[in-house]
Amino acid sequence: MGTEYKINPQAVEVTVGVRRLWTITIYPLSVGDQLKLTNEVADSIASYLDKSNALASFTDPDVDMNEEQIGSLVLFITNLLKENLEKVLEFVVDEKWQEESTDLLSMITNAQAIEIINLVFDMNFGYNLKNAKRLFEKVKNLFMTDKKESTELSQQSVNGMGTKSEISSDPSEEAA
User: Fold this and answer.
1) What is the DSSP string of 36-50?
2) Which residues pair with 12 in a beta bridge?
3) CA-CA distances (angstroms) from residue 69 to 46, 60, 61?
4) Whole-angstrom Cα distance, residue 89 to residue 104?
5) What is the pLDDT of residues 19-72, one digit of tens each?
6) In angstroms, what is the C-alpha Rg of the chain?
7) Within 10 A of 29 (CB to CB), how many other CB atoms are there?
8) Alpha helix locations (H) across 25-170?
9) How far apart are CA 84 and CA 155, in angstroms?
10) H/E stretch holding 172
């Protein structure tokens, strides 16, 4: 029989609440939800950077942000969270908690919201970025090995050791 793998160990139970404590399960985002959310957030960030001309402040370490840019950035982040936090919570918390609470945001504190955002980020992006980097290295090494072998064969051909087809041919074919 084949080997079974459990590939959703990321679901985590957390306790949150202001006056009443709730235990909720935070699930990873589906690929579709993650793409939808990422696109919305990326569009908001791009729009902010375009309007505020703040891109240089983020990309150039020699450029310091002035007080107006810092205030604008804080306001932007606050609005971004306000606009998207409830969407994120609806995507990642268990349905039971959503049914019991009509206003998700009134049931958690700011500190809990930030912890949930960190958890969701690590669960959906941080861990996956490490895995994607590892996969990229594997693919890069595979292609670099193929390219290196091809270059070595070409070099041998140039140095008079035969053509590529002579070098790569199966010796048993020559005997036949």
Assistant:
1) HHHHHHHHHHHHHHH
2) 26
3) 15, 14, 15
4) 8
5) 888 888 888 888 888 888 888 888 888 877 777 665 556 666 666 767 777 777
6) 27
7) 19
8) 31-52, 55-59, 67-92, 95-100, 110-121, 127-158, 164-168
9) 57
10) helix 171-175
